[in-house]
Amino acid sequence: MHLFGVFLFIVLKYFLYLHVTNQMLTLFSHFIHLSDSDQEPITKEKLVNSIAAPPSNLQIR
Predict the structure, then answer these.
(1) What average pLDDT does the segment 34-55 reach?
(2) Among 22, 24, 25, 38, which one has the highest count of C-beta atoms within 10 angstroms of its own C-beta?
């Protein structure tokens, strides 16, 4: 039961991180499109690939 609680906690943190990163990505993509219009837009695959290896000093609040 304890292991299940830890697993649930990690999954919830991961989804929270996905949600926050998605919001930040939409915010940054507006700046990217304003500054460089011919750059290809950031896709969900790129987001997932960047999340696959998050920086070690990342703090989830």
Answers:
(1) 57
(2) 25
Contact present, 29 and 42 (Cβ < 8 Å): yes
Per-residue tokens: 30: 């507006």
Give the start-to-end residue ranges of the domains of the chain: 8-51
Q: Identify residue 19 by its one-letter amino acid code.
A: H
Per-residue pLDDT band for 18 (boundaries 50, 70, 90) equals: confident
pLDDT at residue 37, rounded to an integer: 46
Contact 37, 30 (CB under 8 A): no
Output DSSP code: residue 3. H
CA-CA distance, 54 to 5, in Å (whole number)? 23
| Phi then psi dihedrals of residue 39, to 5 deg | -75, 140
> Do residues 54 and 7 make contact, with C-beta atoms less than 8 angstroms apart?
no
